[in-house]
Automatic annotation (TrEMBL):
Residues 205-378 form the Tyr recombinase domain. InterPro entries: DNA_brk_join_enz, Integrase-like_cat_sf, Integrase_catalytic, Integrase_DNA-bd_sf, Integrase_DNA_bind_dom, Integrase_recombinase_N, Phage_int_M, Phage_Integrase. The keyword GTP-binding does not apply. GO terms for biological process: DNA integration; DNA recombination. Belongs to the 'phage' integrase family. It comes from the Bacteria. Keywords: Coiled coil, DNA integration, DNA recombination, DNA-binding. Residues 76-103 form a coiled coil. This is Integrase arm-type DNA-binding domain-containing protein.
Length: 398
């Protein structure tokens, strides 16, 4: 004969004296001496008796306790231990509640070794920090779908196209990172969001570069002898050097007519920090001599109060001169001069601007940075810069 169920009523629960009372079906009501009470489910699994707490009364009502008891008894009838199954479900739920911000920070931490300077500049993380995490950061990563991503990036998809693409790329990395952690995420959500966002209208603007024929006139106009002008002259003379190595140029890096730029200052991918040797022309060495009196703590181009000049110092100087061009563009000016006027070998010209052109296998066997050939090329470039210049004219709307 089956044991009767639902022995208890709501009316008598509060009046019960301390003790344990069966409601049937393995559900028990335990009234404590302090007046508190809780629900307990008794069941037998694999020949062993277990007691499973179902919550306190009255937070868990009689009706809810009966529903929970029936649910877990069904689990026992399926041959599973109810307590272990509940713990498994709880772990799965907690695992899938990881929010995007935590995943993004963990993904960033895992990739620091690949990033320049361990990502301290923040350029890898900033697209997420500024445009994704404010809206999706507190959302469980398992719940993020293509519509959430589309709605988040739509405001900048056309107006800030490059930033939006970077944010989408970083988000894709975060989703793959979450999947690697064992989280249940939609790995296609980013691609589907991209399809929903559509083609971007914005066309990327390349950094304007000064025609190589006009560079001598500009170079020869830098006669003020200020730190900014000297730094700009050295940047132009060394052609392949970006503004950061110039700003952080240190006397200890210079040995004779070779300036060795430390790997962390170079723009490298996949965490490769390789020192770059720069042959210094006679003109470049003369500029360095002029800069030495300004040196502070060994840095050739110190800032006004501390550190070195900022990354905008050189650009702002050119703006004040009315120039539509920017310092980074002198790399293109030099590279075009190599092709049109110097007839330089392709590999040597590329090496001069620190561009990698060969595969990793070829680079392994080609153990040269063309230093001697670049030394001759840089002397020719310096001669061009100090030759009779063409009249320098900037556009009227610059």
């Amino acid at each position: 004969m089956a044991r009767p169920k639902h022995k208890l009523t709501n009316a008598e629960l509060k009046a019960k004296a301390p003790g344990k009372y069966s409601d049937g079906g393995g559900l028990w009501f335990h009234k404590r001496k302090d007046g508190g009470a809780q629900w307990v489910l008794r069941y037998t699994s694999f020949g062993r008796r277990h007691e499973m707490g179902l919550g306190s009364y009255p937070s868990v009502t009689l009706k809810t306790a009966r529903q929970e008891a029936e649910k877990w008894q069904a689990v026992v009838r399926d041959g599973k231990d109810a307590i272990r199954e509940r713990e498994r479900q709880r772990r799965d739920a907690e695992r899938n509640l990881h929010i995007l911000r935590d995943i993004a920070l963990d993904a960033f931490e895992s990739r620091k070794a690949e990033l320049k300077g361990d990502g301290k500049a923040g350029r890898w993380f900033s697209p997420l920090e500024l445009h994704v995490l404010p809206k999706l950061g507190k959302m469980p990563v398992a719940q993020i779908d293509q519509r959430d991503i589309r709605d988040t990036l739509a405001p900048i998809w056309h107006e800030k196209a490059d930033t939006a693409r970077k944010a989408l790329n970083r988000l894709s990395i975060c989703m793959r990172h979450a999947a690697a952690l064992g989280l249940d995420v939609d790995l296609q959500a980013v691609e589907k969001a991209k399809a929903l966002l559509g083609q971007q209208r914005h066309q990327p603007q390349h950094i304007p570069s000064m025609p190589w024929q006009e560079v001598p006139a500009f170079y020869q106009s830098l006669t003020g002898g200020t730190v900014a002008e000297l730094a700009l002259r050295l940047l132009i003379l060394t052609a392949g050097t970006r503004s950061k190595p110039i700003r952080f140029a240190h006397l200890d890096q210079i040995d004779g007519d070779v300036w060795t730029v430390p790997g962390p200052l170079m723009k490298n991918r996949k965490g490769r920090e390789v020192d770059f040797r720069v042959p210094l022309s006679s003109e470049a060495l003369a500029v360095i001599e002029q800069a030495k009196p300004f040196a502070r703590d060994g840095f050739l181009f110190p800032g006004v109060r501390k550190g070195v000049i900022s990354d905008m110092t050189l650009s702002n100087f050119m703006k004040r001169q009315g120039s539509p061009y920017r310092p980074h563009g002198f790399r293109a000016s030099f590279r075009t001069w190599c092709d049109e006027a110097a007839n330089a070998k392709f590999e040597v010209a590329q090496a001069a601007i620190a561009h990698v052109t060969d595969s990793a296998v070829v680079r392994t066997y080609r153990q040269t940075d063309f230093l001697e050939q670049r030394r001759a090329l840089m002397e020719r470039w310096a001669s061009h810069l100090t030759s009779q210049p063409r009249l320098l004219e900037f556009p009227a709307n610059a």
